[in-house]
Amino acid sequence: MIVADRREEILQLLYQHQRMRVAELSEILGVSEVTVRRYLTQLADQGKVRRYHGWVALASEAAAERPFRERAQQATEEKERIARYAASMIPDGATIMLSGGTTTARIIHHLRDRKGLTIITSALNIAAEVVEWESCRLIVCGGLVRDGSYQIIGPVAVDTIRQLTADFSFIGVDGITTRHGLMTSDIFEAEVDAAMIRASRRAVVVADSRKLGRTSIAVISPVTEIETLITDQNASPHICRDLEDHGVEVIRV
User: Fold this and answer.
1) CATH superfamily of 68-252
2) Residue of 128, 154, 130 whose CA lies nearest to 142
3) With contact defined as beta carbons under 8 Å apart, do 173 and 184 qualify?
4) CA–CA separation, 141 vs 98, rounded Å?
5) Cα separation of 154 and 146, whole Å?
6) Tens of pLDDT along the chain (253 residues)?
């Protein structure tokens, strides 16, 4: 089996079990622990796993979330394709909800010429761009601005969303698995995102392939509460099939 296949098999096993001992992987794969550690080093360098003494887990963003501007410079081509496709789903006159996130922020760049949109957002950076548009109604959630982020959080934001409905919600996440669901790194942000999902007729997650199979600290919702995931062509076929088996439409662009 080639190295890439071995690494993919390790990710599939971790996707099922979340964390495993190096000795377990060695036995399942039929290779030495030294070889397993070499594969794990490569996966860790790609940001897909975290290594601990004698065991390994899927990567989590919970430990130290990077600043927004730094995250915005990662996987830029993939995020742009995802955002462009998401924007193509939105007709003139639609009402949409946009969570915070580097990919949702890119969706806005493709909507300026749409007519009659109503945009509801919990992200100050998105609101700051949309407020200058002439043919658009903007609704911004009230609440507390999260430190180090443009995201508005708290009970006021959640209550605002609960009083509204939308045709679409577009949600950014830090991780997604069928076992834990959609995840983010802040429990208060998770509450706002969950309210958006429940308030929309079609909930769409926009996430590049690095987020698939990854875990984080706060659960937004089970994957069964969303209709669609838009991701990139590098997404693991195994994870995509698993999501599809749970009723999620997976679109790779």
Assistant:
1) Translation initiation factor eif-2b; domain 2 (3.40.50.10470)
2) 154
3) yes
4) 11
5) 9
6) 566 678 888 887 886 666 788 998 998 899 999 999 999 998 888 877 888 778 888 775 434 345 555 554 555 789 999 999 999 999 999 999 999 989 999 999 999 999 999 999 999 999 999 998 988 999 999 999 887 678 999 999 999 999 999 999 999 999 999 999 999 988 899 999 999 999 999 999 999 998 998 888 889 999 999 999 999 999 999 999 999 999 999 999 9
Domain boundaries, the chain: 3-58, 68-252
Token output for 6: 């071995």
Instruction: Identify the CA nearest to 232 among candidates 45, 83, 30, 110.
Output: 83
In sequence order, the β-bridge partners of residue 252 are 231
CATH 3.30.420.40 fits 3-58, yes or no: no
- Note the pTM of the prediction, 2 decimals: 0.74
**What is the residue type of 2?**
I
Residue type, 196: M
